[in-house]
Amino acid sequence: MDRDAKKMNDPLDKSAPRDGFARTIDYLRLSVTDRCNLRCRYCMPEEGVDRISHDKVMRFEEIVTLIRAAANVGFQKIRLTGGEPLVRRDITKLVRMIRDIEGITDLSMTTNGVLLEERAQELYTAGIQRVNISLDTLVREKFLQITRRDEFNAVMRGIDAALSVGMHPVKINVVLIRDFNYDEIFDFVQLTRNRPLSVRFIEYMPTNGAQAWNTDMIVPMDELLSTLSTQYEIDKLDKRSGAGPSVDFKIPGFSGTLGFITPVSSHFCDRCNRIRVTSDGRIRSCLFSDDEAHILPLLRGGEDLTVIGDFILDVLKNKPKRHSITSGRIRTCQRSMSEIGG
Ligand code: SAM
Fold first, then answer.
1. Ligand 1 nearest-atom number relative to CA 81
2. To test the ligand 1 pocket, which listed residue (34, 40, 116, 134) has its Cβ within 8 A of the most ligand atoms?
3. Residue minimizing CA distance to atom 14 of ligand 1
4. Tens digits of per-residue pLDDT, 266-287?
5. Are 310 and 74 in contact (CB under 8 A)?
6. Structure pTM?
7. Whose CA is closest to 290, among 235, 217, 340, 237?
8. What's the gap in Å between 22 CA and the centre of ligand 1?
9. Strand, helix or coil at 281?
10. Which of 175-189, 210-224, 318-332 is most confident?
11. What is the Å distance from ligand 1's center to 14 Cα?
């Protein structure tokens, strides 16, 4: 085992922890609920969703304890996700509580945007300065088809609200599915013409919710780039180290940027810097590994921050070197993104 992976939980040492493969892991994606106000076909079934019972969902105080322990061992970045984080009651209060935790330098959220118009200002004031909004189509009828809810206009207003309160960057996450929205890529590019949006095309992944998934649905980055190049000059942007997994581009003269995230066709596990925590307090060190470490009993048992921090460091030791989606036979994970926290 690498020496860094055995790092002791020393309250004076705030350097970021490393996993067993010497990757710096300082980013925690935290699902605050498994509930969602959409029912995206590739993510959740319409009916019969097994919901985590309320008494098992981490309370705000427990979340704060978890994040304080993570910050003590060197975590700096937190993303709130779900389910849909904006359906969690008093989410703004949680944002304020996390903002005040020493050592947390970056607090963001992934949302479907449906409730963002009414919450953008209070979230921004509370500490969410940047946001990722999921939007897979720019056609209202197709939005209804894929999400099973008629909320397209609300999401578009949510995007405008995020920009107008000053959130930056505002990223639009588009899961690209060949027969569903590949024909809309130029419309998505147009979103970046006059608005400082970062549109990111993400490969469709074989999670548990993605029942219809097959490799033909994926549009590899090379193909996407060559299609876009038929109409635009596209400049590749330099990547600052520690930035996310996207490969970024810009069309000269456009206000926004484009990004490509390729977890399936070209994984980026060697640069992985994150772990995830489900809303019922299970740490997943890899999206595609179903190994989960139950941290809720420690949080409820009143353990002190050092014990909880050491537990997190132990999880890092077992973080897999890479995901197993495409190693040999295609493997999916046992939970959907709405349960894990996308
Ligand atoms: N409700 C929030 C939202 O919609 O952004 C956060 C949770 S949602 C599960 C997070 C992201 O996971 C969304 O962008 C969604 O499109 C993405 N997602 C869900 N299932 C996916 C899959 N099979 N492949 C790729 N992305 C997926």
1. 6
2. 134
3. 134
4. 777 888 999 999 999 999 998 8
5. no
6. 0.93
7. 340
8. 28
9. coil
10. 175-189
11. 32
Which percentage of the chain shows pLDDT scores above 70?
92
Instruction: List residues near ligand 1 (CB under 6 A).
Output: 36, 42-43, 81-82, 84, 110-112, 134, 173, 175, 202, 204-205, 207, 209-210, 337-338, 342
Atom number, ligand 1, closest to the C-alpha of residue 210: 23
Does 251 score more than 70 pLDDT?
A: yes
User: What is the C-alpha separation between 139 and 23, in angstroms, rounded?
Assistant: 41
Residue keyed to tokens 């969902």: 57
Q: Which of 312, 291, 315 is nearest to 303 (CA)?
A: 312
Rounded-to-integer distance, Cα 30 and Cα 27, Å: 10
Matching residue, tokens 């590994």: 289
Nearest to 332 by CA among 31, 29, 43, 135: 43
pLDDT of residue 338: 79
pLDDT confidence of residue 326: 61
The first and second tokens of residue 283, run together, are: 């740490």
In the reported structure, the alpha carbon of residue 338 is separated from the centroid of ligand 1 by a whole-number distance in angstroms of 7
Which amino acid residue places its CA nearest to atom 20 of ligand 1?
A: 43
